[in-house]
Amino acid sequence: MIAVLHQDPRDPDFIQNPYPFYTRARKHGRFFLWHDYEHLCCADHLGVNTILRDRRFGRAAPEGFAPKRPAHLAPFYAVEQHSLLELEPPKHTRLRALLTRAFTNRRIAELEPQIDTLAQDLIAGFSTDTVDLLPAFCEKIPIIIITRLLGVPEDMADQLLAWSHDMVAMYQVRRDRMIEDAAVRAAVAFSSFLREYIHARRTDPRDDLITDLIAAETSGDQLSTDELITTCILLLNAGHEATVHSFANGIKTILENPHPDNSYFNTPQATLETVEETLRFDPPLHMFTRFVMEDLCLFDHNFKKGDVIGLLLGAANRDPEKFPEPDRFDPCRDGKGNLSFGGGLHFCIGAPLARLEMAVALPILFRAFPNMRLSTAPRYTDCYHFHGLETLKVTL
User: Fold this and answer.
1) Which domains does the chain have, with CATH numbers?
2) What long-range pairs does 318-326 form, CB within 8 A, spacing at least 24?
3) pLDDT by residue (tens digit) across 255-298?
4) What values do phi and psi take at 257, rounded to 5?
5) Distance in angstroms (rounded) separating the CA atoms of residues 170 and 396
């Protein structure tokens, strides 16, 4: 018997701390019906991890089950239809293969000195003893690095950030007509900007990711202009939004769990372990949905084609069956099984960059200000399925 649980995802208490609800949900079994969403959810690590990797569950609705979308959203979904995040094989296979030919580990690794310099420059620019690190540090690093990576003008960073916020809001539970209209305007403006920029790069190639994406080829196949536009938007929107929340949530967690001499960053290995544990402990994305692609039975539950299931990444990361004492922040644990960046076919392609940015920038911040402390209690913003802060005010 599937339990039916009621929890308003916009309830102020839930926004500030969703983890007690996840604990309650797991006590009812692997699956439960989240009444407020009207679909099944999974809150344990084994279940979420299994379904993320099971090709019988997909991001794109099976034929005949696609949700109806109002006409006013057509421009937004015209962009999204080419998104790697929303496609299934064989389209996904083709697009990801082309993208990975350009978005290489070498290109990511080459960004390390830039991240180091940028973090130090941002810190040098702090003009007062009290700083809101969210706009001054956490937002700046991902957006500036992605502009440099793509090769778009750095002075466009604030505009790109605004377009990104407007588009990503479509995936938040607070979505309404005003948010939808803003997302459509952002999608149209963002696409127009990139179309002109891609056209220029075709005749004037540079050492940047857009040029590499244009040149990427597999068996004579290349990305179309529309695919290039959507891929660039996805890299900025998905990568940036998650990384900002990862930075801010991670800094908050470390400040709330102080360690003598900031030993979280004493060695490169300690730094990597600290970053991984912050991602497990308070991840940036808490729900990732899947469509059931065919009738099937899994974990003794009968799924019907077209059903939707919510995979609760934040809950899976606090499953005591996988992580003993999951509500305790402990970088010494083996936290590599966390699902903060998803898993399987749709594992976040930007995860290595996000981890690199945090591993480089966080030690610089904490070494510069070893006595840094929270000046006001941080509060999370109403942005579920994401989980991020309104502000992060600290006294340096």
Assistant:
1) 3-395 (1.10.630.10)
2) 318/19, 318/22, 318/23, 319/26, 319/43, 319/44, 319/45, 319/46, 321/44, 321/45, 321/46, 322/45, 322/46, 323/45, 323/280
3) 999 886 668 999 999 999 999 999 999 999 999 999 999 999 99
4) -130, 65
5) 35
